[in-house]
Amino acid sequence: MSKKVVSRTAVTAIAIMSTCASVMAQAPGGGKGGPGGGKGGPPRPVLSVTTTAWPDGGEVPMTNAGRGGNKSPAFEFHWSIGNTPADTPAALKTYAVIFHDIENVGAMNTTTDTLHWSAFNIPGTAKGMPEGLGPGVLADGTTNGPGIASRGGTAPGAYFGPGAGPGPFHHYVFEFYALDSKLDLPATTTREDLLKAMDGHVIGKAAYVGRFHAPPQ
Fold it and tell me: Which residues contact 82 (CB under 8 A, 6 or more apart)?
């Protein structure tokens, strides 16, 4: 066999080995674990919430509006992997909710919107929240935090529903957080301190939206 043939054979063999090595290096090694999953880990359950009070993105009824009955809506918590119901995460300790009007400026010349209501230390064993949640710190540890009802520190925290006047709809967002810890915060905490305390402990999050404006006069 000539030297040229041997040389070409060697080069071809090296090229094939190099290609195989490249393919092996790029082969799936776990990748993302699916919805909520970390790299290389199994898929994690995802939090979602529902209510029968109105469809997600629909109009908030007067029963749940600040201008009406001012009752907090009942919510149900759900955990799933894809379309399959799943158990709650083992690390789950508490839930928190932040309810805000994303179109109403909370303070002059700032980007902060209006916080209507918040609650934290909702037990991780809870399957949801009942309609008409009471004010202050409840028997199960649920703590009503900062919001419109507790402005100025003269009253305990409590739900305060949508209150936009006649005109364009305002969009109100309930943000639910699943946490791996109980928050060591007083009921008089601020929105900023609540968010800071949750940071690093969020293992699930869900949102539910409602639209509201007052009926024409």
Answer: 34, 35, 43
